[in-house]
Amino acid sequence: MPQHDRTAVVEEQAVPSAWRVRIRMHDHPGTLARIAIRLADLECNILGLSVLPVPGGVLDEIVLRPATGLPRRLLADAIRAEGCECTAIVDADVHELVDPASSTLLAARRAVEDPARLAEVLKDVLAADVVTLVPAAEANPARTESGHRAVFELGTGTALVARRQWAPFVQLELTRAEALVTLLGAAARNVAGPAVLDRPDGAAIVLRKGLPGDADAVAELHRRCTPATLFRRYHTGVRTVPRRWLHRLLVPPRGTSVLAVFGREVIGLGQLIPTITGGAEISLLVEDDWQRQGIGTALLARLAALAEAQGITELAADCLPGDDVLPRTAARAGLRVERDPENDARLRLC
Fold first, then answer.
1. DSSP E strands: which ranges in 44-84?
2. Which residues does residue 46 pair with via DSSP β-bridges, in sequence order?
3. Which of 54, 130, 214, 239 is deepest in the core (most CB within 10 A)?
4. Each residue of 291-307: pLDDT tens digit?
């Protein structure tokens, strides 16, 4: 096919209910009207229209119902006859008939309700061929493939890479997708806000993010814990933690911590640390006097919610061989527990 005729046109035996047609044109009065007349001559019914500003003109995206038996090539030729460039003709689905603003808002709701489906939602918003979750270090945002590839950083050590062969992404679409990702980030941060446990004894226990200023309280937590509890957490004979450890416990690299606070005392500490494979490591420490009262379960449920908000679907934790405390806590938090077949002390939580 000659270079100037390389349009995303695929002939098919069955005519779909709708086509999505992208037309690049100069922003001159009457151009769109002439295109509409051409479409009417071909007995095409226009169902929706979106105008996407691009350098040097506009890109009109028209969703239409084609006449029975109309070849896509004939439609592309008619558009070119008006001095416009038909960049793509692809099948459209029912959701294409929703205006872009409503479609994006509906997509945002789906992503907020189920953060693990963000890649799927972004694929719909961009009408991309594929969206893949990768480690941020491997995303390579400078590689755009002439506009057919886009990268969206998630701020969790991961990124989403979108690809679309049928047409390059335009700036308005990328801005819309960036806004969606930003919204999901704000929703995730909101999940991390303080929460008060509903306890039958009325004790006001708050779950909140750990901060560097909590170092002294966390040090006291460790001093109040028995050697057995500390050994279960660290798998070594720790009685107190060095000062330099406290900051890493409260602000772990790439991760976050959640504290259970009663009055001014920290009575529990949980950590969530995303890994480069897309999962996350979790750990728990609960003061002896507060164990078996649902504190560990609440902390683990909170960590799981934070992970879900970041699109993380698999958690992992280390426990001592034969120790069933963490597995039972995870089960009470609503997580499915699996033992690593190659390491009995390794748990997978989903």
1. 45-54, 57-65
2. 64
3. 214
4. 999 999 999 999 988 88
Spatial neighbors of 228 by CB under 8 A, at least 6 apart, are none
Tokens coding 51: 């105008």
Domain with CATH 3.30.70.260 in the chain: 3-96
- What residues are paired with 340 via a beta bridge? 343
Q: Which residues of the chain have pLDDT under 70?
A: 1-16, 94-99, 156, 189, 343-345, 350
- Judged by DSSP in three states, 5 sits in helix
DSSP state, residue 161: E
DSSP three-state, residue 129: coil
Exposed (0-12), middle (13-18) or buried (19+): which is 38, by Cβ within 10 Å? middle
Both tokens assigned to 93: 């689905």
For 67-73, the CB contacts below 8 A with 24+ separation are: 67/42, 67/43, 68/15, 69/15, 70/15, 70/42, 70/43, 70/44, 71/11, 72/9, 72/10, 72/11, 72/19, 73/9, 73/11
Q: Which stretches of 161-200 are DSSP H helices?
A: 171-191
Place of tokens 């090539």: 73
DSSP label of 13: S
* CATH number listed for the domain at residues 195-349: 3.40.630.30
Tokens matching residue 54: 């691009």
Q: Which helix H or strand E contains 346, and what residues bound it?
A: strand 343-349
Tell me if the domain spanning 3-96 has CATH number 3.30.70.260: yes
pLDDT digits (tens, 9 = 90+) for 268-290: 999 999 888 888 999 999 999 99
- CATH 3.40.630.30 domain position(s) in the chain: 195-349
Half-sphere exposure of 81 (CA within 13 A, CB side): 12
| Main-chain phi, psi angles of 68, to 5 degrees | -60, 125
Distance between CA 112 and CA 273 in Å, rounded? 21
